[in-house]
What does this fold into?
Amino acid sequence: MILIDTSAWIEFFRNRDPLAGVVDDVLTTNDAAICGPVETELRRGLRDERERRRVLPLLGGCQMLHQPEDLWTAAGELGFRLRRRGVTPKTLDLLIAVYALSHRTALLTTDGDFVQMRKAGIPLLLSPT
It folds into this structure.
């Protein structure tokens, strides 16, 4: 299972290789996962009903990861630890990272915040493209 981050979805919808192919493969094999923060970002960014008809069925085909019981506390603590190491990711990225960590799933992303978290010692499994 691979948690597909918003940045990877955007590359998929723009049909940018190689990431578009990776997302397509993950969807085809039913290994795609999504979480609340990613769904929120994607729904918020939809421009019109045509896009909704194109995007929402794809999201519905993904496994929805359950919210970790300690999501808010864990995200705050992760942000605290990272800030001490000179890394200040966006709040939604902290939430997404907690989902990936608590479900022990790889994260497919192009967002540099996750790379910075990894470099700061957070054991995120970033999926190769």
